[in-house]
Amino acid sequence: MSTQQITQVNPTKRQGSAAGSFKRLVSNRIASVIALVIAVLWTVPTFGLFVSSFRPEAEIKSSGWWHVFTDPQFTLDNYRQVLGSSSTTDLSGFFLNSIVIAVPATLAPLVLAIMASYAFSVLEWKGRDLVFVGVFALQVVPLQMALIPLLRLFSGSAIADVFPFLSMWVAHTIFGLPLAIFLLHNFMSEVPRDLIEAARIDGAGHVAVFLRIMLPLMLPAIASYAIFQFLWVWNDLLVGLTFSGGSQTVQPLTAALSALTGNRGQDWHLLTAGAFVSIIIPLIVFFALQRYFVRGLLAGSVKG
Known about the structure:
Helix content is 71%, strand content 0%. The protein has 304 residues and is mainly α. The chain folds into two domains: 14-83, no CATH class; 84-298, MetI-like fold.
């Protein structure tokens, strides 16, 4: 009499083998070559734009940037024109406008989201999960739906005359909050409850737990979101055009770049220099917070 043995595949083992196969796939030489090709394809146009920003106007309009290797001609005229040669092409004022818009529009949703995330992840109150789902659902609301109502709310008001950038601050804060609360809540929820309970037993209140435990642990996540929000606000064009009303005193840098080519597109060579002027601050912010940014992206990716 023969005995039949039935072999069952362990689901955990199967998942482990699939993860190992994927790891070997992305870590082999083929994946490295593909990543290198993508990096080159992404970098070459940026490098060409950077080279063109130092070429004379006639050379930019008559030949490609790669001709600099055979006929190198460099000048700073493009940067002189976009940084103060005339009122129509001077980007320095718009540069300051973007800083005034981006910094409060990054800090405001960040501060509100940190406090709201603590309330959603640590505090116990009735209807907490339902409210959190409602906040999360606000991410699907298109930005364009609220622009005109907000514009009508602030247009012609006394507070808009006193704080001309307030409408843009409010718009960016409102549409940055749902994602900020969602991301920071997920990070804060991974903090062990035992750590919070131990602090409560030692007599720490919610303020002490928030300031001494949560905030230090949340620095990578806070820095990650701050970088994303700052870049979104800095590169925004729609909100800036809608709420500035064509006034150069409050227009962001992106609005000035869109009009830099002139009425008939004859000054498009200035965009090469204007583009690199506009990315100075984002590069500084990214490299200054790069360490926290990488840690924030990796936080929560491995559970043990």
